[in-house]
Amino acid sequence: MRLGVDLDDVVAECALPYLRKFAEEFGVELPPEPGWQTLDAITEVSDADKVRFRQRTYDGTFFGELEMYTDAPAVLERLASAGHEIYFVTARAERRRVITETWLRDKGIFDHAKAVHLRPQGDFSPTRTFGRYDPSGSARYKVGLAEELELHAFCEDDRLISQELAQRGIRVFLFDHPWNRDVEGPRIERVSGWSELGEKLGL
Ligand SMILES: [Mg+2]
Predict the structure, then answer these.
(1) How far from each other are the two terminal CA atoms of the chain, in whole angstroms?
(2) Ligand 1 centre and the CA of 134: distance in Å?
(3) What percentage of the chain reaches a pLDDT higher than 90?
(4) Beta-sheet pairing, 113-119 with 85-93
(5) Fewer CB atoms near the end CB (10 Å): N or C, the chain?
(6) Per-residue pLDDT band at 132 (split at 50, 70, 90)
(7) Going from the N-terminus, what domains does the chain have, and what CATH number goes with each?
(8) Closest CA to 89 of 19, 147, 169
(9) Taking the complete model, does pTM exceed 0.90, yes or no?
């Protein structure tokens, strides 16, 4: 099968280190189950400061310092050696390619993939707020690419992206996180992580 694999919060643990850094910077307390949903709930930091923090963080060493989920590399390796085609598909901007591919190589999983796709620079809408997360644009990008690559399934954590992929007939392995707990529907299968996905696929 041809499988799309998102990076952030699917292969790399991203929300938690991001929020820890954010909490440290602005001196805010994190709730018991922090996740991307936490950011919107924090009202004592202005939207402009949130956008600036995001930009500064992503322009720095953040993506190069992320940890991989411990069971990811073994399952990715088994997938590849069982003949499945893996495509890393991230909504990170194309200008993050070097830091992204270097990280994938350092973690030893670059060679398991047929290709690494990042969101092309020109794909970002000129009317969106610069530096702000853009779920609908990312969904459009990922759905379009999934159709172009004729992917059979996709590993994803984002609420909107997983629902739109499923609506277009693509099987979604939804990586369980606090921000996607309400997402369900045909073709959406929730998994706790790579080990469960490996079991599901008989690896
Ligand atoms: Mg993600």
Answers:
(1) 13
(2) 12
(3) 91
(4) parallel
(5) N
(6) low
(7) 2-13+66-200 (3.40.50.1000), 15-64 (no CATH)
(8) 147
(9) yes
